[in-house]
Specification:
about 60% helix, mainly alpha
Length: about 110
């Protein structure tokens, strides 16, 4: 029987503002590279970073909870001028965070 992948917990945030700036920059690069650079990508990256930063300021360290918060709050964002949606953004944020922690996207190790 296979073992479930354990939850991934980020270290407590010492500087949520700096984390948010990093995420915004990295997410914008990902958005512009994945398909086409679009003006709306800046707004998407900014909004996702704001959600992430607020969650971290509130003490959220669980990656799964952060992803759910981004999916939930990005549902209100107007993606009509974008190739992306809230799930793609939350998954990209998750991948960027996993990369920053040196964790494989596939298997959580």
């Amino acid at each position: 029987m296979t073992q479930p992948i354990p939850p991934i917990t980020l270290p407590p945030s010492e500087n949520p503002q700096l984390e948010g700036e990093w995420l915004q920059k990295c997410l914008l690069l990902w958005l512009d590279t994945e398909f086409l650079p679009e003006v709306v990508n800046q707004k998407i990256a900014q909004r996702a970073a704001q959600i992430f930063m607020r969650q971290r300021m509130e003490g959220e360290n669980d990656l799964g909870s952060l992803v759910i918060a981004i999916v939930t709050e990005m549902q209100a964002f107007d993606f009509s001028k974008s190739f992306y949606g809230e799930f793609a953004i939350a998954n990209a944020v998750s991948d960027l965070l996993l990369d920053s922690l040196g964790i494989d996207h596939c298997c959580g190790q």
